[in-house]
Amino acid sequence: MSPDLLTALIVGAGLFGIGLYGALSQTNLVMIMMGVELILAGALVNLVAFWRFLHPESYAGQMFVLIVMTVMAVEMAVGFGVAIARFRARGSVEMEEARELKG
Amino acid sequence: MTSMAHDLAFLIPEILVLLTGAGTLVCEMLRRPRTALTVAVSGLLLATALTLPLLGVDTSVFSGTFRIDALSIWAKLILLPATVLSLLLARAELHGSDREGTVYSLLCFTTFGALVLAGSGDLMFLVLGVLLSGLGAFALVAYPRNDAATEAAMKFFVFASVTGSVMIFGLTYWFGATGSTLLGALAGLDKAPLAAAVGLIAVIVGLGYKASLVPFHFWAPDAYEGAPLSVAAYLSVVPKIGAIFALVQVVRDLPVSGGWPLLLAAIAVLTMTVGYLAALVQDNVVRLLAYSSIAQAGYFLLGVVAVGVSPLALPALIVFAAAYAAMNLGAFAVALQTGRTLDAFAGLGHKNPAVGVAMVLFLLSLTGIPPLAGFVGKFLLFGAAIDAHFTWLAVVAIFNSVLSLAVYLRIVVPMYRQRSDAAAPIFAPEPMPLARLVWAIAFVFTLGIGLAAQVLLGRLT
Amino acid sequence: MSPLALVVLAPLAAAAGIPVLRRAPAMLALLGAGAGLIASLVLLAGASAGLHAALILPGLPDMPLRLVGTPLTALLSTLVAVVGALVLIYAVGYMKQDDEKVRFFATMSFFIAAMQTLVLAGDWILLLAAWELIGLSSYLLIGFWYRRPDVASAATRAFLYTRTADLGLYAAVFLLIATTGSSEIAVTLHSGAGASVAVGLLLLAAAMGKSAQTPLHDWLQRAMAGPTPVSALLHSATLVAAGAILLIRTAPLLPPDALLAIGIVGGITTVVTGLIALAERDLKRLLAASTSSQYGLMLVAVGAGVPKAALLLLIAHAAIKSSLFLGAGVFQHSRHSTRLADLHGAGRDRPWIFAGFTLAALALAGIPPLSGFFAKDAVIAASLASSNARLLAPLALAGTLLTGAYMARALRILWQGKRRDQPVAGLRWMGAGLAGLVILAIGLGAAFPFIETLLATPVPEPALARLLGLSAALGGLALGWFIPGRRLLGPLLPWARQGFAIAGGVDVWIVRPALTLARGCERLERGLYAGVMAVGRLGLGLGRAVRRSDDQGIDGLIFSLVRGTVNLGNRARTLQSGLIHRELAISVVATALIFAVLFVTLLAF
Hints:
The complex is a heterotrimer of chains A (103), B (461) and C (605). Chain B has helices spanning 2-10, 12-29, 33-51, 70-94, 100-119, 123-141, 147-178, 193-210, 219-226, 229-251, 260-280, 285-305, 313-338, 348-351, 353-367, 373-387, 391-415, 433-451, 453-460, and strands spanning 59-61, 66-68. Chain B is mostly helical. Chain B has two domains: 1-249; 259-461, no CATH class. In chain B, strands 1-2 form a two-stranded antiparallel ribbon. Among the domains of chain C are: 255-483, no CATH class; 502-604, no CATH class. Chain C is 76% helix and 2% strand. A two-stranded antiparallel sheet of chain C has the order 1-2. In chain C, helix 10 runs antiparallel to helix 14 and helix 16 (351-365) runs parallel beside helix 19.
């Protein structure tokens, strides 16, 4: 494994870790979505690194990058849709306030 | 170009589902919800009919990235009719509400996502399938736009996006280890055990959330409770079966040395037990059915662990999927007609004997009592698990059936007990001819699959 | 149409037709039962001529469903058809005043169809299906008068008891199919390999539930809440008989150890439930206890290795017990009660009915030349000839003695007392059904040689058995007639009245847990304990359970178990906090755990 690949993977894992921490620790829906974006950014870094350093002949890696970027965009759009609907119903997108359904 | 045409010919049902979704949306734009429903139902039925000639085909399209095999074909034959029943339920429940047609359209698109999942032969299709079957689902759950529905949608969305992104991140390692995103290339993973383990966990997280396996099940009861009942019924059947079939598509190519069968067996035990235990203490029928459908997902895993070892595994999964779709939709349809609390079921067996008999039948079938559909499915699943030397797992599953009987009796017992107050119910539920139609159809299938298992299996093997 | 199909389809058609047509339900049911009876007689005639009928239906792959007409199954089917038809005739009179004839006759016909499927089933899957259908239809019938208090709970109790024991059958069938690779009963029986002790014990468990053997006998007495024709059918040829029939059919398969277990369970049951019958204060409950006791004797015969003796007793008992119940039903209608205290002298009201009842009672006790004598004789001879004679023979003789005693007690109560004439509606139909069954109870003994040649296995009958059996029967009758049951039981009385505390306590094993759970667990405390506390709590709970089991016997232990399950359920529920973070965190921690486990296994290999 080349040092470059290792560096890239460590950056990817770091982004994943920060993103996961954010998604778990934040109570605001928008902040959680930011965390999710960071996780996906980590995945992008990984994919690009794997493609560049290990499998430069494969176009599947680039395709996968495009797909993940689409996922990011679409997920954001839907997430804001959900946030707006929630805000209209409740006036807040705090997860701590969403605890009527349980048990 | 001819190969393109050849590939597309195999995808006619999927394409038709997409077009149906779009057509339904157009009808909604024209403010014609009734036409939208007609378009959706007839489009999906046509797609089902066009799937029939494909039976027996085993090939793949787009250079192996999408599979046309027994699983994906039967997924269409099971999920499309199940979506039609959900459409009818949605009409019964949401008739007259604002933007009613969007629900039908979203149901079609979400089903398309589940179909992509069931046939995926590539990591990218897996990701897209999870995304497509999730996007519409959030909107469906939030449809009533009240406090509970938006809360449910928000939780559902957070859970889905976190698990989905974790799955994507993990899958990148599979690409790194094999240099390909094709599931067929996963056999090369035995040289990179660590990457194999990370990717495996990623898949279990992503698909496990969709199939509501424990410990990724938390969203399900809340989402079902907050959502319209017809949407809950739909979510408990269509995306779940799609995710299970996708899991099969993944593990059938995975080297067994990765230890996935044992891992899935452990999750199966956990899922069945936690699901039924939690169902035992619910007072809300929707939540009870939600936990029950979590537990049933554990039974599916009995077949998944046997994939590649037992020839019985695939037929067992398909039969159980069909049986599960019929009995679960039936139970939800009865709940839609009756009410969301256990109290609403008190005395139902005397007030409305036909509904009572149907509900008892659905619940007994969920428990797995012969000669009903659920029994045949579970019988085959147990057989597959025993074939694959998971006898202990089958035994645990049988013991869980005792627990499940206690769970389902919680609905049945009040149905046949007399109401303490002989007075009329507080509100008389309006008659729902469509809901009645749905449970009647589900009733026929629940009985029919049990009795005609031979014929069904003849087609499968 | 083959008679084999007709045997099942005729009552089934009646069951389907009655609710559709909604008129003349009794006649339709009789028509269905009559057609089924004729078909089963044709089947029996064919079987005795050596014809081996079989009907193969589609089923699971390579495991078709099938109905078979062997001599044994044809004989049992005839028995079911005859008793079913006569009980239905009686029911025409009995149900005359009831408003819900449609439901009653439809369910009864369905019940008969299910039982016919069970006895004729040629493969395990169909047998399982029929087994469940019997459970379901008996649930519906026991709970027929669901408006009366306690009836629904009695029905649920019966259902749960038998359902739980059914798990034994499921497990046994799975094991049998897995070892022999075939679901056909004939193949598994003649596979030569024989079954393991485990299979034998599992089958025994299933039979104990259905045939109400100690310690699972309690539900049968409570099941008296149903209409009398239901009890008659339940006890003689259908639900309860299913357990014994299962063991009779599988007896060739069972290893000696399992047979011994069967014999011991049967022997204990026959004595325990015999004592309960002696202490009973209600005529129908007395008869119910007696049913358990007689099925115990059958299990003794199976355990002694002579299932044919059990079969003879099963046939004789079917006729006798249904006559007794039908007679009791008449007394119930004339006095509007089944309590023995209210029935003093009821026999004098209707001497003809009483005569029939007496003949049946004497037949049950085993007085020659009535049918019961020959059957008892065969059972006692079997127990004497068995290799475990020292264990089984005394139990069988004690059972016979007790039979005489409690039947004589019932007769005495019915005869001694004042006459109180009250009109009974529908007496003619009831009398006709009863007469048919009593004639069978008297005369069936003459048919036994035919049965023995049909099944090609003579039953041993040494003179010693005859002598011992007769003296036990006569002794029992004398004791029961001259000495009141109270005095006879002495210090055992209070215990027997409670249905023997250990035995009654086992009620709690299955029924109360399920009922408690089913009825909403909110009454039980909902402890909210953190994960760490759970471990400590488990230890505490165990300690408490042990202490309780010392204090209150099995009751306490089981209650702790129930509470434990519910607590577990509540704990699973508290995980669902509604706070998405906490839930997500649980998911992530679980994922990390999974990863750790996988990682460790990777390092290990």
